[in-house]
Amino acid sequence: MDVLKDVNAIFRDVLENDDLVITRETTSADVEEWDSLNHIQLVVSIEKHFKLKFTANEIRNWKNVGEMCDAISLKLNV
Amino acid sequence: MILDFQTLKSQAKGIQKDNFKKAKIAILGNYATQFISKSIGYSGLTHSIEFEIYNAEYDQIEPEIFDQNSGLYNFSPDFVFITISSLKLQDKFYSLSAEEKTHYTRNYIANLTNLINVLDSRLKTKIIINNLEILNDQVFGNIYSKIDLSFAGNIYNLNYELLRLARSFDNLYLFDINGLIQYYGARNIRDWGQYVNADLHYSLDFHAVISEKLVTFIAAFLGAIKKCLIIDLDNTIWGGVIGDDGLQGIEIGSLGVGKSYTELQKWIKQLKERGIIIAVCSKNTEAIAKEPFEKHPEMVLRLDDIAVFVANWENKADNIRAIQQILNIGFDSMVFLDDNPAERAIISQNLPAVSVPELPDDPALYLDYLKSLNLFETASFSTGDKDRTKQYQQEAERQKLQFSLTNIEDYLKSLQMQIVLEPFNPLDIPRIAQLTQRSNQFNLRTVRYSESEIKDIGTDPGYFTCSIKLKDKFGDYGLISVLILKKLNDEELFIDTWVMSCRVLKRGVESSVVNYCVDLAKHNGFKQLVGEFIPTAKNDLVRDHYLNLGFTNHNGLWYLDTQNFKPLVHYIN
Lengths: 78, 573
Fold this sequence. Notes:
The complex is a heterodimer of chains A (about 80) and B (about 575).
Chain A: H1 3-15, H2 36-50, H3 56-61, H4 65-77
Helix pairs in contact in A: 1-2
Chain B: H1 5-13, E1 21-29, H2 34-46, E2 49-55, H3 61-66, H4 71-75, E3 79-83, H5 86-94, H6 98-102, H7 104-122, E4 126-130, H8 151-168, E5 172-175, H9 177-184, H10 192-198, H11 204-221, E6 228-231, H12 242-249, H13 258-274, E7 277-283, H14 286-295, E8 308-312, H15 316-327, E9 334-337, H16 341-350, H17 366-372, H18 388-404, H19 408-414, E10 418-422, H20 429-438, H21 451-459, E11 463-472, E12 475-487, E13 492-500, H22 509-523, E14 528-531, H23 545-548, E15 552-554, E16 557-561
Parallel strand pairs in B: 1-2, 1-3, 3-4, 4-5, 6-7, 6-9, 7-8, 13-14
Antiparallel strand pairs in B: 10-11, 11-12, 12-13, 14-16, 15-16
Helix pairs in contact in B: 1-2, 2-11, 7-8, 20-21
């Protein structure tokens, strides 16, 4: 499964930007619509899509999209 | 199934705002309310309401209400939603001394009463506050009831006091968040990770659940209410087919899964007593279809509960059109209940305004499903609502009489109508307010008034008021029409409001009212009676109302010269 591709689709949906392209290095500073409210919606949508639940700590510590994707992959492989 | 936030958001996105109602709502919370605000906006769109929303800053309930120059008062909302999270209350409660905890409920309610008083006196607005989430913190376990230091005990006390508060303020309403939490399950309403990280007091999706329910309630204030429930019979309100299984074979009460149907009937009966009109629409031979209502000992619904009974072999869409003709209410105020998906599809396609619940296959699930749809939200209740079924049955009788008489004058004379026109009587205020809120078709300007506003107008020397009651030989209609006349200047009296129940159309009531108003105007020295028609999606019925009554149009307003007026002919005493 290409986690980044799925995550990109979720970003487009939640942030209502159909042209958005994110990479592992993307941070919230790079994407105008990625504010704290939308971040909550992103996390909830990702949890639903991959059918998993993050801990409070995991949500807190992501520095960029790459770390987000790694957390997803880690949970999916267990 | 929990409606999720993202789905609600995307549903709202594509909606065309044609003929939308508009309302201003302010949201004040003791927690971060950005999501509830967004969600209310989305729910509004899916209910054809365009909200203008003022979302107060975090935990600013008191400053917003006390400061006369706050954003809240500048915004001047139609609705104020005050939302209180019990988690936040609990946090504050824990920081109190034992002595303070003992007085917690009393102090909290005193403070809140004061707040509501200030808000209610400064703004003409509906105040909606959620009841407090029952949260047993398990500090005192099950002896919470004995200990006034217990937070859980205090929450129960607070909810009781809130109920009393809502009864003492006409404009204060208590939103039942506990009912929602109970339905969705306390475990499904929170996302503790997000609570810790983002102070999100409810899960993202539960915000959508709250806003859907809240907006349905607000829509009721704006006139969107269901007035009639149309029921199919076989396999909908009893199990089996009466024409095949016979009186002894249908499942109701103790037979088979009869309990499902009995409980559904009991609920329908309660709705009927609240004032919802019950009609039957069934593919059956009429005499056979009526048999259980007359003879089955375990039937809850009886013939006198049914306002209109239609059982034949015609197409149900035509039958519902016929029911609509008799009741004279909008299709969008009707709900149609049928176990058969094909019948449901016919109605949905032909009469898309009618609500058609997709009943589950298992009758044991009917009632729980129907309750979850929150179809019968209402903004007012008056005791006269209970008698409505009888009035509609009488209407069905009158319509039969109308067929047998060939000329309308003879028919009207034969009704022996008697009318009472009088200034607003304090006892009638709930019904008067309700008429201004519920009438959509015969409503010239569609201005909605609350009970307290009606009360004020009744005593304001700048207004004349008139309520109209009608009865005839078949029965009493009760209060059927309301006029509010406003003094524009020494010469002109303006008809601010004229609403009438459509049940009494074409009886000459309007003529009788005009005669009365002209007398009133003349008597008080006014030369002109001035009317206005403001078109809406629903009041086309009265487009030519003033023209038909002899008013003349001038620059969009309708004028009637009281000096040269010849009384209109009618047959009402």
